[in-house]
Fold this sequence. Notes:
alpha+beta; 150 residues; globular
Amino acid sequence: xxxxxxxxxxxxxxxxxxxxxxxxxxxxxxxxxxxxxxxxxxxxxxxxxxxxxxxxxxxxxxxxxxxxxxxxxxxxxxxxxxxxxxxxxxxxxxxxxxxxxxxxxxxxxxxxxxxxxxxxxxxxxxxxxxxxxxxxxxxxxxxxxxxxxx
Length: 150
């Protein structure tokens, strides 16, 4: 592993740990301060991680919008575990949060057709309900064409 790859891994791990522990992503300055690196080095790492589809930034900034499956801004998917609560960008990411944390979870959302509240529960890595339909309007192979929309 090269120096840039090793640094990007360190940045990525810090971003995820901070996001989970604090409920929000760190800034480049926070990462730089914690890792003892320059903000410019962290910003370069952020850009490499964006190119690798690890991070997504708010348009025109280096402010982390998504570190999939976590989202920095409110969505219609709120995931709660014993450890805390986070926003999932989509239902796919909402299920990814408890998988990432290896924890049981409740996912609060609403029906996209009728707006009725819905809750999904994951226990022991399995979904507790056995009915329902998930609809993905955009094929998975096209998600990164416009990840903020899909």
